[in-house]
Amino acid sequence: MSSVSIKLPEPDDLDFAFYKACAENGALAIQECRACGQRTHPARYYCPRCASDQFEFKPVSGRATVHSYTVSHFSVEPAWRDRVPYVTLVAELAEGPRVLARTDTIKPGDISIGMPVRLELETLAPEFSFVVATTAKAES
Ligand SMILES: [Zn+2]
Questions:
Q1: What pLDDT, in 10s, does the model give residues 77-122?
Q2: Distance 34 CA to ligand 1 centre (A)
Q3: Rounded to the nearest whole angstrom, what is the distance from the C-alpha of residue 36 to the centroid of ligand 1?
Q4: Residues 22-54: tens digit of each pLDDT
Q5: DSSP-assigned letter for residue 108
Q6: How far is the CA of 111 from the centre of ligand 1 (A)?
Q7: Beta-strand pair 98-102/86-93
Q8: Could you tell me the distance, in angstroms and rounded to a whole number, from the CA of residue 18 to the centre of ligand 1?
Q9: Left, alpha or beta for 86 (phi > 0: left; psi -120 to 50: alpha)?
Q10: Is 120 exposed, middle or buried (0-12, 13-18, 19+ CB in 10 A)?
Q11: Nearest Cα to 53, choosing from 24, 30, 33?
Q12: Å from CA of 46 to ligand 1 middle
């Protein structure tokens, strides 16, 4: 682990609401429409299915599969330089929405599209968490 601190984003509006809900739940909490139940990420002011503006953030299972990924071999950020090469991925939750995640445990040669992963939070501040992916066993 680097001794250089990571520069944290300062989310606002709906992004802030998302991170705050995650921190309060101690788990990944995705926006859910109160009118029709649609799960949406990133959060929106109006439901993409029914246009309702009534929503809440509810914890999800953390079960997901790899939708897409990239491998970084270089970083200009001092805090990330000693981590290269590292994987950043888009994971599709069992509940539907896709979420950006980082990982320390899934190495570039070990990741594949469709691979099951588990998503958890690494909370760095009350208003910001990383979503972190680890390998998961396929469920039958
Ligand atoms: Zn809706």
A1: 888 888 999 999 999 999 999 999 999 999 999 999 999 999 999 9
A2: 7
A3: 4
A4: 988 989 999 999 999 999 999 999 999 999 999
A5: G
A6: 34
A7: antiparallel
A8: 17
A9: beta
A10: middle
A11: 33
A12: 8
Q: Counting Cβ atoms within 10 Å, is residue 57 exposed (0-12), middle (13-18) or buried (19+)?
A: buried
Give the C-alpha separation, 97 to 91, whole Å: 8
Is the separation of the CB atoms in 53 and 87 below 8 Å?
Answer: no
Whether 121 contacts 132, CB under 8 Å: yes
Q: How far apart are CA 95 and CA 127, in angstroms?
A: 23
* pTM summary value: 0.89
What is the Å distance from ligand 1's center to 47 Cα?
5
CA 78–ligand 1 middle distance (angstroms): 42
Given a cut of 90, is residue 18 above it in pLDDT? Answer: yes
Which pLDDT does position 4 carry in this prediction?
Answer: 65
Q: Which position has the token pair 């309702």?
A: 52
User: CB neighbours of 126 closer than 8 A, spacing ≥ 6?
Assistant: 19, 20, 23
* Cα-to-centroid distance, 68 and ligand 1 (Å): 27
Residue type, 101: A
